[in-house]
Amino acid sequence: MSKIKKFFSKLKPSKRKIIQLYSALLYNAYMKGFITGEIFQGKSKSVCLPGLNCYSCPGAIGACPLGSIQNALAESKTKLPTYVFGIILLYCIIFGRTICGFLCPVGLLQELLYKIKTPKVRKSKITRCLSYFKYVLLFVLVIGLPLIYSFQAKGIPLPGFCKYICPAGTFEGAVFLLMNKANQSFFEMLGALFTWKFILLIIFIVASVFIYRFFCRFFCPLGAIYGIFNKLSILGVKVDKTTCTHCNKCITNCKMDVKDVGDHECIQCGECMKECPVKCINWKLISKAIKEDDETESIQNATIDEVNTKKVFKISRKNFNIITYVLMLVSLTTVMILVNIGPNTYKNFDIVDDFKITDCYNQTFDISVDTNATLLYFFNDVNDLDIQKLNSYRDDKLNIILLASTDISIDSIVPNDSNFKFVVDVDNKLLKKFNNGKANSYSVFLDFNDKILISKVGMITDSEYFEIINYTLLGLTVGNEVGNICINQEINLIGSDDTFSVASNKGKITIINFWYTDCTPCVQELPHFNKLYEEYSEYVNIIAVHEATGYQNDPEDVENFIKTQFEGFSIMFGYDNPQSSYYTLLGGKKAWPVTVIVDQDGVISNVTHGSMTEDDLRIEIEKLID
Q: Taking CA atoms, which of 10, 110, 311, 341 is between 20 and 30 Å from 146?
């Protein structure tokens, strides 16, 4: 029995391991992302987490501090990065490298790998010297390259460490995203850079089996930053020099390359406390325990009522631990519920399979049984209805369903022979399935397979009807895949009140490139597009469409970037619609650039996720011209 008990006691994780695991789960609380393959886009994503955790991890609910520093420096030419630096400085002053010891998922992974039974490489003068290499990476890749590139004339951002080294980005971001079937198109974007980073990842994983915290000790710039503040941090370990015997057991038994407890290489894990024979190592901010004899004396001198009062308010260590674990579990559960459980809304190209209504004439409509295409129009006021237009859309193969948010009588408005279905959408319950009920005037169009092809605020336009709905009713496939008629949408042009659409430019090849200013591959490939446009302008239209949110937040900055970076370019520049993203409609999945090539008849001939070379683009153009 004692052997069994001893076996399970070895499996019991330490408090530090529990905190490390808790932090990893809390940082990556968006479990839904691992299922859908999508990156969390909530408000918390603008906040830096203290530990190294990739922004692009499907489960990440916050930003990586190292990535945030590089992005902030890349933009420092136009704005001072006070927000990001303020948060990092706060972490440094409060925690120092306690973050490395307790709050970093990458540190936890390395420690688990080190537990694999193999011969180990012990620390030495060589490892001590190599531990300074992370400071080289900090000043060259994290600070130097982003700053140098930000002040170049071209202003192309370059987060050096994230791009060339970071194993957390390769593992948490790239590998986890590529593992999901929904992101199969990402494989087209892989190249020599990913191969290099994947090889580095394997090296880091294998080395961590033999060398304790291999990445942390020699390569992590974030640990280097926190280490600078180790002596100043509010939390961490400290040595009582009045009782220290200088036996150096703490240093000898530490697996990190420390010279003193709490120096810049110390990860503040507290393991040295167990090694100290005189117990002179303690946690900062925690007063030394009252000596037994003092406590006994105070109790002896106290009255019976005082002693009883102390007993009432005294919490045992065991009960304190239980309360702490319960609070941690409740907090983690709450966060997971908030980020994972929300309104289950449909997106473009989703299949609607649970839409069932009873109209005002008590007739039941079940979309899973009906074989027609369906147009849904949600409205709040009869003045929002253009009955004449809706009536012109009538077709035997099209259901038109009007859904009012309040109990409105429309008998005098809707023609008796219209065959429209009318429903009162109480509390916008049905509308919430498509857009969280945020708008009262909303249109949704479903094809014969109940796939959403239109989901937008307001009524559909004539262009949308003729280029999407009418084509569908004629039996043609409208979508975002090669061989489909390209789904149509008006693109607003930058610096003009005009718009551009594929449908209005048939007869010419249309190339749509989705980009944004901070995307280095995007910026680097656009000169190829402009060069080929000038060469084939007789046959081709090319439009570069900027990402919606970035343009909406700072349109002037985007316009100035285009003027300086792409001065004299002949291609068109437009911006995406945040309410109905054309990038999403055409299959974009939070990775840029994406290029869609449409032939002279409006049919998609090529979709490329990732950069296109000049030669590849030329081949696609000449293929369609011939």
A: 110
Partners of 402 in the beta sheet?
377, 422
* Residue range 241-261: mean pLDDT, rounded: 94
Using alpha carbons, select from 75, 338, 99, 400 the residue that is nearest to residue 222: 99
Nearest to 521 by CA among 253, 210, 288, 193: 193
Instruction: Indicate the pairing of strand 421-424 with strand 478-479.
Output: unpaired
pLDDT band at 355 (very low <50, low <70, confident <90, very high): confident
pLDDT at 284 over 60: yes
pLDDT band at 418 (very low <50, low <70, confident <90, very high): low
User: Of residues 12 and 565, which shows the higher confidence score?
Assistant: 565
The label of the residue with tokens 């530490």 reads 254
DSSP 186: G
Superfamily of chain region 485-625: Glutaredoxin (3.40.30.10)
Provide the 3-class DSSP secondary structure of residue 442.
Answer: strand
- Kindly report which listed range (69-73, 340-344, 530-534) carries the lowest average pLDDT score: 340-344
- Structural domain spans, the chain: 10-228, 292-340, 356-476, 485-625
Assign domain 356-476 to a CATH class.
alpha beta
CA 164 remoteness from chain centre = 19
Contacting residues for 311 by C-beta, under 8 A, at least 6 apart:
none
Is residue 572 within 8 A of residue 603, CB to CB? The reply is: no
Q: How far apart are CA 185 and CA 609, in angstroms?
A: 7
